[in-house]
Design brief:
This protein has 471 residues and is α/β, with parallel strands linked by helices. It has helices at 15-20, 37-45, 52-68, 73-78, 86-91, 120-134, 147-155, 186-190, 264-273, 291-305, 332-336, 341-352, 358-371, 400-407, 436-444, 462-470, and strands at 10-13, 32-35, 80-81, 99-102, 140-143, 160-161, 179-181, 195-199, 202-208, 220-222, 230-237, 240-245, 280-285, 311-316, 372-374, 388-393, 415-420, 450-455.
Length: 471
């Protein structure tokens, strides 16, 4: 193992980094990588199964096999160039790709007595210390998604970093919100060249001005004055944009399946959920902001009243809040029922608004359940949904890869709604900046057939609102 003494850094990869992102070995640009033998052992133990982690491990093994193919012992000791396969050349960007080193001999360094080397994490720490001692002129850095691993590394004065390449944005506060307040003098700056017309009972404006270039398609614009102006960016091109005046769903006479918007953001959400030209909608918000209720109300209206879709499909990641309750009996829908409490609660509320007597409410509930199907994420791969209204609940727990798998299931006439709360992520190693929900919000913001809105105000109850703020 002959690590060249250059200005490049040497990153030692923890197992969880490779499990989290199989392409991580191609994400360090011109720097060199080192994979300890204990990491390969842990990968071997995790390769069996149908989970995403097992699939990622098998993909890592394929990448490593392709890199090491036809390489002799001398080549392995000198380091394998990451440009040996096409993926590495395209992912590393500018500059010469680094090299990948495997542990080919025993490396050990005395650890404190409380850290026995037999534990995998401690063995990796020992190897990092040995590499730092053997190559004092090289900056050796441990990369791990495990917070405790990085804490132990810091205690041993080892340079350790999180794996940041999977992060969509640097700060979650910078995430696109989908709405923007216009300045008070907006019409003074943009009203001189404005054109307006009506089409299909909707009002449109064509506006030119300096601020138009900052807008995104399907963005929600509003004025915080007594005019109550609310509009949706229908299209934008350079300094010219077409705005559509938003419909008002706040009144009981203009509700959606008995649901009226309680605030500005909910009103915009209903506008985009009911728009047939929008194929993909993302709704963010804390508990009690009405994400699931709005998505279901719009879906029932479009499916049962307007016949735009054949049925509503609801799915979510099955991550428990407490201890796992084990395997559940029954069919797919019966197994998913305990995870769909939010769906059932909202369906019960929406069904109760469809009749006055118990018999009418019971009949309405049966009609609703015949058009609402519960599906598990485990069986989504390879499917194609035609003319379906697909709701992905708890989407903050999905990885970007899982999100891509689900969205690409959409066939002609299908609309997908992703809802979630980035402050309630339960999936290990996922953060608000690396969640699949954050990923799609950022990637779809420039597409004219998608829309996003962050719901700010809780409308569940005064108790829920106070608890959300104070706890």
């Amino acid at each position: 193992m002959n690590i060249k003494s250059t200005a490049k850094k040497l990153f030692v990869l923890d197992t969880n980094v490779l499990m989290h992102d199989p392409t991580s070995i191609f994400r360090f640009q011109e720097h060199n990588l080192f994979i300890p033998m204990v990491v390969l052992e842990e990968l071997d133990h995790a390769k069996k199964g149908m989970s995403d982690v097992s699939r990622n491990v098998r993909q890592v093994s394929r990448f490593l096999d392709e890199l090491i193919r036809d390489a002799d012992q001398h080549t392995i000791n000198e380091g394998l160039p990451l440009s040996r396969i096409e993926h590495g050349a395209t992912a590393t960007g500018n500059g010469t790709p680094g090299r990948l080193y495997f542990q080919t001999r025993q490396l050990s360094h005395l650890l404190p007595p409380d850290l026995p080397g037999q534990i995998a994490d401690n063995s990796i720490l020992s190897i990092v210390l040995a590499l730092s001692k053997e190559h004092p002129d090289i900056n050796v850095i441990l990369v791990s998604k495990d917070i405790n691993m990085r804490i132990k590394a810091a205690a041993l004065q080892i340079s350790a970093e999180d794996y940041h390449n999977d992060q969509t944005i640097e700060d979650i506060d910078l995430l696109y919100s989908g709405a923007m307040a216009l300045e008070a003098n907006f019409w003074e700056e943009h009203g001189s060249k404005m054109e307006s017309w009506q089409e299909n009972n909707l009002t449109y404006y064509r506006i030119q001005g300096p601020h138009v270039a900052e807008w995104y398609p399907r963005q929600f614009l509003y004025l915080e004055d007594e005019s109550g102006f609310e509009a949706i960016v229908k299209s934008c091109d350079g300094e010219t944009a077409v705005l559509q005046l938003a419909q008002d769903f706040r009144t009981k006479s203009h509700n959606v399946w008995g649901v009226s918007a309680k605030n500005r953001e909910q009103n915009f959400a209903l506008n985009v959920l009911l728009d047939p030209d929008i194929d993909f909608v993302t709704l963010l918000g804390t508990a009690g902001t009405g994400k699931t209720l709005l998505a279901l109300a719009a879906g029932l209206s479009l499916t049962l009243e307007h016949k735009a879709y054949l049925e509503i499909i609801m799915t979510r990641e099955t991550m428990p809040v407490g201890e796992d309750i084990g395997f559940l009996p029954g069919s797919e829908e019966e197994k998913m029922a305990p995870w769909m409490g939010a769906l059932m609660d909202n369906l019960e509320l929406l069904g109760s608004r469809s009749g006055t007597t118990d018999w009418e409410q019971g009949a309405s509930h049966n009609v609703l359940m015949n058009r609402v199907k519960i599906r598990s994420l485990n069986f989504m791969r390879g499917r194609t949904f035609l003319n379906r209204y697909l709701i992905i609940d708890e989407a903050q727990n999905l990885t970007p890869k899982q999100m891509k798998t689900l969205i690409t299931r959409a066939g002609p006439g299908t609309k997908i709604i992703c809802i979630g709360n980035l402050s309630q992520i339960d999936t290990p190693y996922l953060t608000p900046t690396s969640s699949g929900l954050t990923y799609v919000v950022d990637r779809f913001k420039n597409w004219e057939n998608s829309a996003h809105i962050t719901l700010r105000r809780g409308e569940r109850s005064r108790l829920a609102d106070y608890a959300s703020d104070i706890l």
